[in-house]
Design goal:
The chain is α/β, with parallel strands linked by helices. The protein has one domain. It contains 5 helices and 10 strands. It has a 6-stranded mixed sheet with strand order 5-10-9-6-7-8, with helices on one face. A 4-stranded mixed sheet has the order 1-4-3-2. The termini are far apart.
Length: about 190
């Protein structure tokens, strides 16, 4: 009997906590499908999510840690209007805001400012309801880099003391920098009057 009790205790202690992003309600409402990111580069993953959104399908990425499971359903830009100041940008290993670039080590500080701003300063989100975090990585980036950045983001978000956190959805948008178009050469001078 004692051995059974110890075994039951060990089994219940090994159960991982599950976190849902943007929220648990989002997962209940949209029932997203898990996407395997292991063989995709960042461009392919972002385009897959974008194409799914066009078809009104949502996907999620599952990341397992030693003591938790994170189910993250990111978005990708589909051409709609998004207010730039509502975004906190993570560009490779830096934080980008309208007022400049900052080290990723200050992420907790800027997440708190971003979600608690409520229209006080122009540089941060006008409301926690419209706030989002945008990850901008290179097109060739692999899934391990994405998982590392996402895991760091959600862990820091969970550790940050933000007012009304239980009513906040952590909306994450994936994007990659577009290539600059080739410059159009000026017209030949013989045709200019």
């Amino acid at each position: 009997m004692k051995k059974l009790f110890i075994l039951l205790l060990i089994f219940t202690a090994c159960k991982k906590e599950v976190f849902h992003y943007p929220s648990k309600d989002f997962f209940k409402e949209y029932n997203p499908v898990e996407i395997n990111v292991d063989n995709l580069n960042f461009e392919e993953l972002t385009d897959s999510i974008r194409n799914g959104l066009y078809e009104k399908e949502h996907y999620f990425i599952e990341i397992n840690d030693s003591n938790a499971t994170y189910k993250i359903s990111p978005f990708a830009l589909t051409g709609g209007y998004i207010k730039e100041s509502n975004g906190l940008y993570i560009i490779n290993d830096s934080i980008g805001l309208i007022k400049g670039m900052f080290p990723i080590n200050d992420l907790s500080k800027y997440l708190k400012l971003h979600y608690e701003n409520n229209g006080k300063e122009y540089f941060y989100a006008s409301s926690y309801k419209w706030a989002y975090v945008k990850l901008i990585l290179t097109k060739e980036g692999d899934s391990e880099k994405l998982k590392t950045v996402l895991l760091n983001l959600v862990k820091i978000y969970n550790q940050t003391d933000i007012e009304n956190k239980d009513s906040i959805s952590l909306n994450i948008i994936l994007d990659y920098p577009l290539e600059q178009p080739a410059l159009i050469p000026p017209p030949p001078t013989e045709y200019i009057n």
